[in-house]
């Protein structure tokens, strides 16, 4: 399926649209898949754990509380996610190592960049509903993202 979010919105008016504000940073501009959620704040321990597991084409939705004080994803975790079959990550927060991530075969959208890494305290929740950008993301939904925006569907499209 070619992912073009304006076409998805035209063909499926029931989809939810995430409010603007995210930027594309990954080597893949258009990506989508089943939603896996992580809720964390300035601690990417759960993200690190999950990218080490098979992604099976899923998209990790990371609710970092919109923090712009540290990066929840860097080059090593992005490369691990790509190697383990994740389609992408959408991060309500920041990333770092963008020059390397732009060359990684992975979809990555985030609010911005920050050079500081997070503390690792082992704090975070996996597969809980998370809300940001005017949308509540739930495990098992499907998300599609490109340079036009991010949309969420209750069912797989295409």
UniProtKB/TrEMBL annotation:
Enzyme Commission code(s) on record? 4.1.1.112, 4.1.3.17
Protein's UniProt name: 4-hydroxy-4-methyl-2-oxoglutarate aldolase
Q: What class of enzyme is it?
A: lyase
Q: Does the keyword Cytoplasm apply?
A: no
| Gene3D superfamilies noted in UniProt | Ribonuclease E inhibitor RraA/RraA-like
Entry coiled-coil feature ranges? none
Q: Which UniProt keywords apply?
A: Lyase, Metal-binding
Needed cofactors, names only, are: a divalent metal cation
Which family does the record claim for this protein?
A: Belongs to the class II aldolase/RraA-like family.
Name the source organism: Marinobacter lacisalsi
Reactions this protein catalyses? 4-hydroxy-4-methyl-2-oxoglutarate = 2 pyruvate; oxaloacetate + H(+) = pyruvate + CO2
The family database entries (PANTHER family) matched by this protein are listed as: 4-HYDROXY-4-METHYL-2-OXOGLUTARATE ALDOLASE 3-RELATED, REGULATOR OF RIBONUCLEASE ACTIVITY A
This protein's assembly is summarised as: Homotrimer.
Query: Superkingdom of the source?
Result: Bacteria
Q: Which residues cross the membrane?
A: none
Summary of the function given for this chain in its UniProt record: Catalyzes the aldol cleavage of 4-hydroxy-4-methyl-2-oxoglutarate (HMG) into 2 molecules of pyruvate. Also contains a secondary oxaloacetate (OAA) decarboxylase activity due to the common pyruvate enolate transition state formed following C-C bond cleavage in the retro-aldol and decarboxylation reactions.
């Amino acid at each position: 399926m070619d992912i073009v979010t304006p076409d998805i919105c035209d063909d499926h008016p029931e989809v939810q649209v995430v409010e603007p504000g995210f930027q594309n940073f990954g080597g893949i501009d258009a990506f989508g898949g089943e939603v896996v959620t992580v809720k964390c704040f300035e601690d990417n321990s759960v993200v690190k754990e999950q990218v080490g597991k098979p992604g099976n084409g899923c998209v990790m939705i990371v609710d970092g509380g919109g923090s712009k004080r540290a990066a929840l994803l860097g080059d090593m975790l992005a490369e691990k996610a790509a190697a383990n079959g994740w389609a992408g990550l959408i991060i309500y927060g920041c990333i770092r190592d963008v020059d390397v991530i732009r060359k990684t075969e992975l979809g990555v959208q985030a609010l911005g960049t920050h050079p500081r890494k997070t503390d690792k305290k082992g704090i975070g929740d996996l597969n809980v509903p998370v809300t940001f950008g005017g949308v509540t993301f739930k495990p098992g939904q499907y998300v599609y993202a490109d340079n036009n925006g991010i949309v969420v569907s209750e069912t797989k499209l295409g």
